Every structure is written in C-alpha cells, then in structure tokens.
C-alpha cells in the first residue's frame, strides 16, 4: 500500500510540474513606445512598396519600391533621402524602368497618437528618370501615413498621398497621381 501511495504521489507531482512549465506565447503585435523611437539623434531605415497593380484591360503590371533613410534633427522631425524605383510591364511593349532620388522631410504629429502608433506627414522633392525617356524630370510627393510600432524599434507603415513625375516624357505618360504604399521602418537609437 505504501508503494502504491508513493507511486500515485509521484505521478500527481509529475503532472502538476508539467502543467506549471507550460508556456503559452503569442506573437507581439504592438509595443508601448511613446516618443522613444522618434527622439532627436535617432535614425530610421526602411522602405515601402506601393502602387502595386495589374490592369486587365491594358494588360499592364506595375510596382514601385522606395528604400529610405533619415535622421531625426529634433523630436518628431526627420530629414533623409529615398530612392524611387519603379517597374511597369505592358503586353507587347518594352518594359519601363523608372528611377529617382528624393530628399524628404517627415513630421510625426503629436495629436491623435496612441501608445503604439503615430500619424505622420511626409513631403519630398527630387529628380526622376525613365528607361524610355532621355530627360530627367522633377519629382514631387506629399503623403500622410500611420506608423504602428510592433516593437520598440520596428514599425509597420501605411502611406497615402499624391506623387508627381513626368520621368518618361517620350513615352507620353508619367507616374503622377494618388497612391497607396505599405512598408516598414527600423528606428535606431543615436548617440546622446
């Protein structure tokens, strides 16, 4: 009887021990960051993908990629540069490659912010070119967006706005119009 009681106590203890060590984790979807990532002296590196689309009528596919890097000159205000890289494939026509570089200014609004996200506005002015045109054109952009911080240093972003460029003048069309982009930024702390 003693052996049976001892055996039952060991089985019961083992069962409780395995239940106590069971760890359930869920992926992190937001972080309470406040102003930490957008403080003066910090860096931001990342990019966005925008204007992805396919036209069934014109049999045209297009995509734009914008890698960027910036430096916070003061809390919530960053200056930087971004590359503008685009590709358009049209059936029975040569592919069109667009390129450009644009300095930008980005401001994170203090109002309407949450503990894990910030609204921002971004403006840029630069130059752009195209594989179908020999001329270089002015490129302008005015966008608003929202950055949702999933960790202390990484944010997912969505931006919408107006971008203007007549880079492929010889082809008769440009990249002007309203656009939507999604991307991410990594916020690196600077020296203080």
Task: Explain what this protein looks like in three dimensions.
With 192 residues, the protein is mainly beta. The protein has a domain at 39-46 and 68-84 and 100-188: Beta Barrel (Porin), CATH 2.40.160. The protein is built from 1 helix and 8 strands; from the N terminus they run H-E-E-E-E-E-E-E-E. The protein has an 8-stranded antiparallel β-barrel with strand order 1-2-3-4-5-6-7-8. Strand 5 (117-130) and strand 6 form a beta hairpin. The longest helix is centred in the N-terminal third of the chain and has 19 residues, at 2-20. It is elongated, with a radius of gyration of 25 Å.
Q: What's the quick description here?
A:
The chain is mainly beta. It has one helix and eight strands. The radius of gyration is 25 Å and the shape is elongated.
């Amino acid at each position: 009887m003693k052996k049976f009681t001892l055996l039952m106590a060991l089985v019961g203890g083992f069962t409780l021990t395995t239940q106590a060590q069971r760890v359930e984790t869920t992926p992190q979807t937001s972080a309470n960051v406040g102003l930490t990532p957008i403080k003066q002296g910090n860096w931001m590196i990342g990019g966005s993908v925008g204007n992805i689309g396919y036209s069934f009528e014109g049999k045209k596919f297009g995509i734009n990629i914008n890698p960027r890097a910036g430096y916070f000159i003061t809390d919530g205000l960053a200056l930087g540069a971004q590359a503008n890289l685009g590709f358009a494939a049209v059936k029975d026509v040569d592919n069109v490659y667009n390129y450009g570089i644009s300095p930008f200014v980005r401001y994170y609004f203090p109002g309407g912010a949450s503990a894990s996200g910030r609204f921002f506005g971004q403006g840029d002015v630069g130059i752009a070119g195209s594989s179908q045109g020999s001329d270089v054109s002015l490129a302008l952009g005015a966008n608003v967006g929202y950055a949702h911080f999933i960790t202390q240093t990484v944010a997912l972003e969505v931006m919408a706005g107006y971008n203007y460029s007549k880079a492929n003048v010889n082809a008769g069309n440009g990249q002007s119009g309203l656009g939507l982009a999604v991307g991410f930024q990594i916020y690196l702390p600077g020296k203080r």
